[in-house]
Amino acid sequence: MRILNLVENEEGVPGCEAAHGLSFYVETQNHKLLFDTSPSEVVLRNAERLGVDLTAVDTVILSHGHYDHSGGILAFTSFNPNAKIYLQHNAGGEFYAFDGEDKGFRYIGIDKRRSVPARAES
């Protein structure tokens, strides 16, 4: 088994981009998986820098619907339209963070302009 951290809050491997969020590439004897997709297309750039072929990924697992774990899903699906996508049944829900009395609540869920592809499974 091989597990690579593609995106997190720290740069990790020099040349990779840090971002608030998470994405792991997991390779087993039978599967190539992407666990979470980071907040954006940064997942694609870091995968390329680390020599990971995301077109070979057969399964994506989104742990939950916060943007920092699911924001790269559209960039990924334009790059790899064939992977199966699994997510929680409530991943498309309404999620907010409270930024203080002066700023109020901020939406942190999956971008409503972006929809998880129709082939997504719960």
Describe this structure in words.
By secondary structure, the chain is an alpha/beta fold. 16% of the residues lie in helices and 24% in strands. It has 3 helices and 7 strands, in the order βββαβααβββ. A 5-stranded mixed sheet has the order 1-2-3-4-5. A two-stranded antiparallel sheet has the order 6-7. Strand 6 and strand 7 form a beta hairpin. The longest helix has 8 residues. The protein is globular and about 50 Å long. The protein starts with a strand and ends in a 15-residue tail after the last strand.
Keywords:
single chain, 122 residues, alpha/beta, 5-stranded mixed beta sheet, globular, disordered C terminus
Most strands sheet: 5 strands, mixed
Rounded mean pLDDT score: 90
User: Which structural class do the helices and strands define?
Assistant: alpha/beta
Cα-based radius of gyration, to the nearest Å: 15 Å
- Identify the strand order in the major beta sheet: 1-2-3-4-5
Total beta strand runs: 7
Written as H for each helix and E for each strand, in order along the chain, the element string is: EEEHEHHEEE
Oligomer: single chain
